[in-house]
């Protein structure tokens, strides 16, 4: 099987699995306990925190472990100050291409009167419009949330420019860094972000573990109250997963730029060879993208028809976001980019990882050629 759905989830690295198993077998004591076994577990917890902080150029105390990026994102919403200076619910600006679960959580809070929500539009390439950002990021906005890289198109967002606008307006900036971490360098301290979210399973770590990063001295209320994580996230730490996350972060930091270049090269060759054989539209092709992501449409083919054939041929890919695939509605990301509904229904996402080889890409192209020839003729 050729697996090109790494933006949905990546294969846990063997080193991650080994460290997790070792932890399960030998360090099952509660890391909050004072006895020696608990203290040994606690040292592993702090080692993982340091490994993650190092990858993100942060300090260990800035890392709060959560159950994943979804929880970290919701903790960001939860921590907004309930009333602004004028007594109104907080004003939140979010890009219209944030992760679907995050948008949903914000919309739910808006419906409950807990916040006021404004969406930042994106251009036809899927990048947040800086003109719109300049007009909308103004005094009175409590928090701006823009992802570093989009999960469907891979398009990188202008975080440095948005951070400067936030600073000028006195607004906090949250960056969902889930898709960029482990694929390109992400310097939390240098990014200008006050908060960031990420998830281990996108960087060859385990599922069900993620982190919220907090700027130094930024106090942020817990979503789950409790003593753990310095009072910022209650509940017994999921130590095996945290240990796996730490190892995944350490591995991701090794040869990160080299791995990114190699993936970009493979991805570009994949797109070029497909374009030579089939009528292709690549979404976000004209702006900087993650090196591993290709979101494209082949002729007038519907994504479901293509994906079924590819899977039967041994190639796994996705249509838009994993969470929205299966549904009939076109992706909210492509709709925000003003892609026509019929075109968006054809969008396919191929996402590589550092494990993807040139042979995998050659095999993927062969499978696509064979599976799609009859459809492409009809298209
Ligand atoms: N944010 C982005 C940009 C994502 O791509 C994802 C995963 O698909 C999430 C958040 C959710 O992450 P998790 O699975 O850790 O909840």
From TrEMBL:
This protein's record includes keyword Iron-sulfur: yes
Name listed for the protein in its UniProt record: Cysteine desulfurase
Presence of the UniProt keyword Iron in the record: yes
One Pfam family per UniProt: Aminotran_5
GO molecular function: cysteine desulfurase activity; iron-sulfur cluster binding; metal ion binding
Named cofactor requirement(s): pyridoxal 5'-phosphate
Domain of life: Bacteria
UniProt keyword annotations, A-Z: Iron, Iron-sulfur, Metal-binding, Pyridoxal phosphate, Transferase
PANTHER family: CYSTEINE DESULFURASE (PTHR11601:SF34), CYSTEINE DESULFURYLASE FAMILY MEMBER (PTHR11601)
InterPro entries: Aminotrans_V_dom, Cysteine_dSase, PyrdxlP-dep_Trfase, PyrdxlP-dep_Trfase_major, PyrdxlP-dep_Trfase_small
Residue span, Aminotransferase class V domain: 2-362
Taxonomic lineage of the native organism: Bacteria, Pseudomonadati, Pseudomonadota, Gammaproteobacteria, Nevskiales
Family: Belongs to the class-V pyridoxal-phosphate-dependent aminotransferase family. NifS/IscS subfamily.
Reactions catalysed according to its record: (sulfur carrier)-H + L-cysteine = (sulfur carrier)-SH + L-alanine
């Amino acid at each position: 099987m050729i697996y090109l759905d790494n933006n949905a989830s990546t294969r846990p690295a063997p080193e991650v699995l080994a460290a997790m198993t070792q932890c399960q077998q030998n360090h099952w004591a509660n890391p909050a306990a004072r006895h020696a076994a608990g203290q040994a577990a606690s040292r592993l917890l702090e080692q993982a925190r340091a490994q993650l902080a190092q990858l993100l150029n942060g300090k260990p105390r800035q890392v709060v472990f959560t159950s994943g990026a979804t929880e970290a994102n919701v903790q960001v919403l939860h921590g907004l100050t309930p009333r602004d200076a004028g007594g109104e619910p907080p004003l939140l600006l979010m890009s219209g291409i944030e992760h679907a679960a995050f948008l949903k959580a914000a919309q739910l809070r808006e419906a409950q009167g807990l916040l006021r929500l404004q969406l930042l539009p994106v251009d036809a390439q899927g990048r947040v419009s800086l003109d719109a950002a300049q007009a909308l990021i103004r005094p009175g906005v409590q928090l701006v949330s823009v992802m570093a890289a989009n999960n469907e198109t891979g398009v990188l967002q202008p975080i440095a420019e948005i951070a400067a606008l936030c600073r000028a307006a006195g607004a906090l900036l949250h960056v969902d860094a889930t898709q960029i971490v482990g694929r390109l360098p992400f310097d939390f301290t240098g990014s200008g972000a006050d908060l960031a979210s990420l998830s281990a399973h996108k960087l060859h770590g385990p599922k069900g573990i993620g982190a919220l990063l907090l700027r130094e001295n930024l106090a942020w209320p817990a979503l789950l109250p409790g003593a753990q994580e310095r009072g910022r996230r209650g509940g017994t730490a999921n130590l095996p997963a945290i240990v796996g996350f730490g190892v995944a972060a350490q591995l991701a930091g090794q040869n990160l730029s080299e791995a990114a270049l190699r993936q970009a090269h493979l991805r570009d060759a994949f797109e070029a060879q497909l374009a030579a054989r089939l009528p292709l539209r690549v979404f976000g092709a004209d702006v900087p993208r993650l090196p591993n992501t290709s979101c494209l449409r082949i002729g007038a083919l519907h994504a479901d028809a293509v994906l079924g054939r590819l899977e039967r041929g041994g190639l796994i890919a996705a249509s838009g976001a994993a969470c929205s695939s299966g549904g009939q509605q076109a992706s909210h990301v492509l709709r925000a980019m003003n892609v026509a509904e019929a075109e968006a229904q054809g969008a396919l996402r191929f996402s590589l990882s550092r494990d993807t080889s040139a042979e995998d890409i050659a095999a993927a192209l062969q499978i696509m050629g064979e599976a799609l020839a009859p459809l492409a003729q009809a298209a």
